[in-house]
Amino acid sequence: MTLTAPPAVPAAAAPAARPTSRRTPGGRDREPTVRTLVSDAQLARGRGRALYLTVLGLVTVLFLLVFLFPVYWMVTSAVKSPAEYALIPPTFVPESFHPETYAQAWDHMDIPRYFLNTVWYALGGWLIQLIVAVTAAYALSKLRPRFGNVVLAGMLASLMMPAAALLVPAYLTVSDVPLLHVNLLNTPWALWLPAAANAFNIYVLKRFFDQIPDDLLDSASLDGAGRLRVLWSIILPLSRPVLGVVSIFAIIAIWKDFLWPLLVLQDPRTQTLSVALSRLSNTSQVPPTEMMAGLVIASIPMVVIFLIFQRSIISGLSAGGTKG
Length: 324
Known about the structure:
Number of domains: 2
Strand content: under 5%
Structural class: mainly alpha
CATH topology of the largest domain: MetI-like fold
């Protein structure tokens, strides 16, 4: 009688080993360990936890002083009386409260005119920037023109140049547009056209468009869609997160810009809010408390926009082209 060995089981047919999971004494799976700067073991110790909380508290207080104290000083200075504002040493908590200063600044400094000017410049600049940035990024990412990498490298190289070095060439360009010989000073185009060539926005959009699979565009082309139809029906709907981020950056950049509008908008009727406040601060007709109130009013829209869209900014910059 001969004994035959059972047939060997192929390695491919062997059941795959299941990953072992650590369990707590209660039988529950432990959550995956997350590496942090300070380990959980160090935080569990009394001395380590006290040191961590102390350092965290000091850093938080330092950031609050650096970033929020100027805002607090501006808001509280507006409600002081002019005599209290000029006190040395200054009072950190207002001894007198005059909230009517904001209404006086709104009327005396003609803030509604300059506020509407700034809103008009911001909306127009946002639309033009979006059109130029989207089309340029789409061409560099999906159409891939000849010498496209050279063009992109030149645009990125412009980001390394200080903004002050470009003021004189840009001013000469808008004061006498080449070939057209048109003077754009004291017109919205003096702000819109230079702002349209924003290399950072183009780069952000191109990086986002690169993540969109070309198979989607090829399928649309086979169905008869042209280049513009692909951009409008496929690229833009998938790019809503990053388009929101670029839009926020464009509006904030135009709203807070000061030096360039100061050069190209010399007519007081066409000036932005920041330029008008700077001009009025050099006159003796505006009390310093009203000037502080005007600065607070000029800061409110951008603070509100940031507080509302702060999550959209982070998620838009890190979002991928497609999900799943």
